[in-house]
């Protein structure tokens, strides 16, 4: 790394201003109940004012950062929502989960249920946002727990773990894709490493933690009374549900296309026609676009779903994105304002003077931003933007860059609490108290985060040795 100038009063001021901005964001979201978009914008203004950054320049930086991030990722996120809408609305997710939990029509043993629920949640979570996946899985979780006479949380926690790990670590979810783009990481390498890290994280945060928590008396009797009338949007007439093969192919198609691109880079001549085709269809935007058209044809038209109903499913998938895209854009704007205020140079000095590996430093920054904003995607996008200038000077290998991206994803889910939409969703749907929600959701997320950090650090040390 090239030599950096000594620590200055300006660097101290930048750190203090950044901490103050994050505090303002936390207060604005948790106490003032402002939308995250407005809270993040307010935090950016506070940072600009306290660092002496010209307000006109700060506003221009915010707009440029938001526009750049949404230009890179907005369409990909929209395509992901369309794919998720088709998977949910057609009954494909219901079909797949039911088949996994009752292979050959025979119910699984009580000991195997949490493990199979975790696998089912990971498959359902591949193309779906966490909130949509939870809505689909909830009636199935309740039905399985009731039929098998198991504590609800013993079945529910593996489902929560399977979906949240995929959301944090595995493309095509927005956070990982944004980190890959910002850090110029290899999509295939990040996908493979993300899956390798995701499996042990799901095991520890899902079946292992679920079995532990569900044995405690105050959690064993949870009956989810608040969600008794909650139904899945995927409940469609049986005769119009897609086949199991069609459901599995649709859910796995985008990941398969992305992995095919990586395989072509490793095994095929770069100038060949096959490599060109696989490189094109495996690019995230194209992989999701092809998967959406595949879903429309296979899950919609060929499953005898009226074309008007298919169109309505696609149309209804997009409006909920407005809040998410605004929040993500605000995160990109905040990142650009922080860069304009000199935060990148300060982070570089911290990295140079500390003995922390880059994966740990990136994880810590993501943790701070997640605690402030309540959004894993905003924490991921902002941290990746802050780390990108530093990584560009270091000549890291492809796996190392991917590990930094994954450590950011792991940090983005550390101890999610009252400023997190998922926290309140779990609280309401499972009829939990505040303390119970902290134990079920916040601790689960922390296990995922620490497992991700530990595995990223272990692989980092192995590569450096």
Automatic annotation (TrEMBL):
A GO molecular-function descriptor: gluconate transmembrane transporter activity
InterPro entries (UniProt xref): Glcn_transporter (IPR003474)
Cellular component aspect of the GO annotation: plasma membrane
TM region(s), chain numbering: 12-31, 37-56, 68-92, 112-145, 152-170, 190-210, 244-264, 284-302, 403-426, 438-463
Topology of the protein relative to the lipid bilayer: Multi-pass membrane protein
Recorded superkingdom: Bacteria
Annotated keywords: Cell membrane, Membrane, Transmembrane, Transmembrane helix, Transport
Localization per Swiss-Prot or TrEMBL: Cell membrane
Protein family (similarity comment): Belongs to the GntP permease family.
PANTHER family documented for this protein: GNT FAMILY GLUCONATE TRANSPORTER, HIGH-AFFINITY GLUCONATE TRANSPORTER
Name of the protein in its database record: Gluconate transporter
Species this chain originates from: Acetobacter nitrogenifigens DSM 23921 = NBRC 105050
